[in-house]
């Protein structure tokens, strides 16, 4: 029995070692595999990513001045947030895309010298890696090398985001702490919601749907700023969003000087502007903190109504916005002295649901919402613009109608100024003329001329009698 248990332990440890070796990391912190089924991937040129210098556009001496001329390196002095930009930023962007022939030759010569120096070491290392029992190379690294690479990666990751991880871990600990329910009252609060898109009307409409018709009602829904929110809003009104969400200049400089960057990585940077500008983890933390800027106070007519809404809505998702209701009962002796930022006393009869998604709660790509437009203001502006354009169209239509009426009045048969047109022989119309075109206007003129001639002959007969 002991020998079997020892065999099982050895098999388990060997499986763990194979799993650990199959998930090694390279110098850039990316996971690689030493699975023999995928050994050819490391040597096949089809899977080799091109170097950063290989994708640069080569310039000859005729265009060398482009990298030094100010006309090609004119860049803004501040970014869209008002922060000063480096004067060398435009030149660095040009050097990232273009390279001179001399620079390329120098790089090739340096690579050749480095290749000669490392040739002997490569040959000696190949002897060590050769597996005589199987007749092939062993590409797996030694345990000491794996430990060193793991230690380097761990030190880099810990040094780059120690403070941020501490804050995130602290938030996780606070979320895991059990929160007492408290005594049930007729008031409860809704917290941790996306207040950039949710209004008191939305909460009133949602909670009113869980009230029994005619027997229970919601008196009011008021949204107040929290103490944390007031401090942050005042600070952001003066200084903008916190500087911690932006990447430091040292990290940007390391990214620019990284010559092993692949073309796919550069393409990802172009498609995703946040990769160059924001620290994703810090930005996510900031966006989650914005959920605490406000809180809603819902006042019901009775404790039973508040209890029923709490039981039905607490922990439920609002539409498909990734916002889950976090409801807390409010003691009766608690008062709120601040002026509400928004309030609602009755659910609207005509309600249009909001359509949004909070990226920080659902998506891996988080966007900064500090400078986003107010949805209600945007809708109001669109409505105002539509009303203005509709009014202008109505004015133009009325103006055209008035002009048409004037033209009809001027060409009216009863206008004495056009009597000669119907009575004088100078304006007689001959329908038998080959150039005559039968139209409604011509028929009207002929009918009016015939009517007047008949009327004239009748008057002559009556006067003769």
From TrEMBL:
Residue ranges annotated for the NUC153 domain, each copy included: 415-442
Molecular-function GO term, any one: RNA binding
Residue span, ESF1 RRM domain: 185-344
Biological process according to GO: rRNA processing
Coiled-coil stretches noted in the UniProt entry, renumbered to this chain: 385-413
Subcellular location: Nucleus, Nucleolus
Comp. bias (Basic and acidic residues): 37-53, 68-98, 233-255
Keywords attached to this entry: Coiled coil, Nucleus
Biased composition (Low complexity): 154-169
Family indicated by similarity: Belongs to the ESF1 family.
Protein name as it appears in the record: 12895_t:CDS:1
Organism: Ambispora gerdemannii
């Amino acid at each position: 029995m002991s020998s079997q248990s020892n065999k099982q332990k050895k098999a388990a440890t060997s499986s763990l070692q194979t799993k650990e070796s199959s998930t090694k990391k390279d110098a850039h912190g990316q996971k690689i595999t030493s699975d023999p089924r995928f050994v050819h991937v490391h040597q096949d040129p089809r899977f080799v990513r091109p170097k950063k210098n290989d994708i640069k556009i080569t310039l000859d001496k005729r265009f060398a001045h482009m990298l030094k001329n100010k006309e090609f390196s004119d860049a803004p002095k501040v970014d869209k947030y008002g922060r000063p930009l480096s004067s060398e930023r435009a030149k660095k962007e040009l050097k990232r895309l273009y390279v001179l022939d001399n620079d390329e030759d120098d790089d090739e010569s340096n690579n050749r010298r480095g290749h000669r120096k490392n040739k002997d070491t490569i040959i000696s290392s190949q002897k060590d890696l050769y597996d005589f029992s199987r007749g092939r190379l062993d590409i797996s690294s030694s345990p000491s090398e794996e430990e060193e690479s793991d230690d380097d990666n761990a030190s880099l990751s810990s040094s780059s985001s120690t403070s941020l991880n501490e804050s995130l871990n602290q938030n996780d600990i606070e979320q895991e702490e059990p929160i007492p329910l408290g005594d049930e009252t007729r008031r409860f609060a809704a917290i941790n919601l996306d207040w950039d898109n949710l209004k008191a009307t939305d909460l009133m409409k949602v909670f009113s749907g869980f009230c029994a018709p005619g027997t229970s009602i919601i008196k009011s829904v008021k949204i107040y700023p929290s103490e944390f929110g007031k401090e942050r809003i005042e600070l952001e009104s003066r200084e903008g969003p916190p500087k911690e969400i932006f990447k430091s200049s040292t990290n940007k400089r390391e990214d620019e000087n990284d010559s092993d960057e692949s073309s796919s990585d550069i393409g990802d940077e172009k498609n995703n502007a946040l990769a160059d500008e924001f620290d994703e983890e810090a930005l996510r933390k900031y966006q989650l903190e914005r959920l605490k800027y406000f809180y809603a106070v819902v006042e019901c007519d009775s404790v039973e109504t508040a209890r029923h809404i709490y039981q039905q809505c607490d922990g439920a998702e609002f539409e498909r916005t990734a916002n889950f209701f976090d409801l807390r009962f409010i003691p009766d002796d608690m008062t709120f002295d601040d002026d509400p930022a928004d309030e609602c006393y009755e659910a609207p009869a005509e309600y249009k649901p909001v359509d949004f998604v909070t990226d920080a709660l659902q998506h891996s790509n988080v966007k900064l919402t500090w400078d986003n437009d107010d949805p209600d203001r945007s809708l109001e502006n669109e409505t105002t613009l539509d009303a203005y354009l509709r009014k202008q169209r109505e004015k133009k239509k009325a103006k055209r109608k008035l002009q048409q009426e004037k033209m009809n009045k001027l060409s009216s048969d009863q206008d004495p100024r056009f009597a000669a047109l119907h009575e004088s022989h100078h304006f007689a119309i001959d329908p038998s003329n080959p150039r005559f075109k039968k139209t409604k206007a011509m028929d009207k003129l002929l009918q009016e001329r015939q009517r007047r001639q008949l009327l004239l002959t009748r008057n002559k007969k009556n006067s003769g009698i």
